Amino acid sequence: MVTALPADLSTPCLVIDQAVLEANLRATASSAADRGFALRPHAKTHKCVEIARRQLDLGAVGLTVATIGEAEVFAAAGCTDLFVGYPVWAVGAKAQRLRSLADLCTLSVGVDSPEGAELVGRALGGTASRCLIEIDSGHHRSGVRPADVVPVAAAAARAGLTVAGVFTFPGHGYEPHRQAAAADDEARALATAADALHDAGFDSAVRSGGSTPTAALTGSTITEIRPGVYVFNDAQQVELGTADWPAVALTAAATVVSRSGNTIIVDAGSKTLGADRAPWATGWGRLLEMPDARIVAISEHHATITIPADEPVPELGAIVRVVPNHVCAAVNLADELVVVRYDDSTDGGGAAIIDRWSVAARGKNG
After folding, report:
1. Is the pLDDT of residue 2 over 50?
2. Residue in 102, 143, 86 with CA at minimum distance from that of residue 366
3. Which residues are within 8 A (CB) of 177 and not within 5 positions of it... i.e. 6 or more apart?
4. Among 79, 130, 133, 307, which residue's Cβ finds the most Cβ atoms within 10 Å?
């Protein structure tokens, strides 16, 4: 594995391996096309216009976003089909912002209650915008039970909003050994909800699901998948078995600033890596070149890393590549992503900075 990083990097910073990113984008686009699914990737992972454009160029039908703010960024950049995959509570300024978005793009919005659907309908009724009803398929976050979709659809219709179908997030697939079960739950829930809508006279053409851990297992019930993390992958995806280390495209370049025995401290703490750690995770992140090392403690500007006894301990001043547990959280902390191209033909694997991409939707949390 290539270990060299450009000598002029100022750490900590987030670095993209351009070749790995490209391979990840192409693999998922090809998989979706081969299986007959529309691909609507979730842009909250990368928040980056350059990556969004590449996804669309590779055949994505549009983008998923989590917030109105994210939608505004991508609409302003020329993305013409956006789905806000969240039960937006459309009052006040948010209602006005939704209406303005509808003038810029084909807009779909998530709803999961009659009250929420009525508000979105008031904001968007009379436009070409649509809503999708969110279904709880086992993650038990937002979303209605599959059998309870009709009152939500009826409220949307009364408010003048077109109902396009249903969507869900199989988030319980983010647990070890639960990906297959979560994909099965997702398929059943969407089928039940779509049948209920159809029987009540509503459109159920869109059946949207498919997170990164479950996307490869998605069944024919679904028409559209919305993975996000696949563009970069992270330590969680590797530990879940969704990705291998060579498919990790984004790391935090960090400098060893302290060293004692087999323990090092690097300058990438929670303000670079994020603070997410699932209960089953084996650390606060991993080292790409030393997968058996563990980040055993993290604070704002320090990460404490234990190196296995049979591994060489990086020297003071060495730059290492840290794989965040949850890449979405790490990206939202950065102003830019440093894009690097590696050359395996040089001694040790040379690297060059080829671009710097703005995290354009950073902090657009509402």
Report:
1. no
2. 86
3. none
4. 133
Q: Give the span between the Cα atoms of 148 and 325, in whole angstroms.
A: 35
Convert the pLDDT of each residue in 252-288 to its tens digit.
999 999 999 999 999 999 999 999 999 999 999 999 9
Residues 72-109, buried b or exposed e (16+ Cβ, 10 A)?
Answer: bbbbeeebebbbbbbbbebeeebbebbbebbebbbbbb
Residue 1 pLDDT exceeds 50: no
What is the residue-averaged pLDDT of the chain? 95
Q: Count Cβ atoms below 10 Å from residue 340 Cβ, excluding itself.
A: 22
Angle formed at CA 185 by CA 111 and CA 225, multiple of 5 degrees:
60
Q: Give the residues across from 39 on adjacent strands.
A: 225
Q: Domain locations in the chain?
A: 20-230, 236-358
CB 39 within 8 A of CB 281: no
Given a contact cutoff of 8 angstroms between Cβ atoms, the answer to whether 170 and 212 are in contact is no
Does pLDDT of 340 surpass 50? yes
**Cα-based angle 63, 333, 107 (whole degrees, multiple of 5):** 20
Residue 5: pLDDT band (50, 70, 90) is confident
CATH number of 236-358: 2.40.37.20
Query: What span, in angstroms and rounded, lies between the C-alpha atoms of 366 and 358?
Result: 19
Cβ contacts of 22 within 8 Å, gap of 6 or more: 54
Q: Is 310 helix (H, G, I), strand (E, B) or coil?
A: coil
Q: Among 327, 346, 163, which Cα is nearest to 237's?
A: 327
Other beta carbons less than 10 A from residue 244's beta carbon:
10
User: pLDDT for 168-205, tens place per residue?
Assistant: 999 999 999 999 999 999 999 999 999 999 999 998 89
CATH 3.20.20.10 holds for 20-230: yes
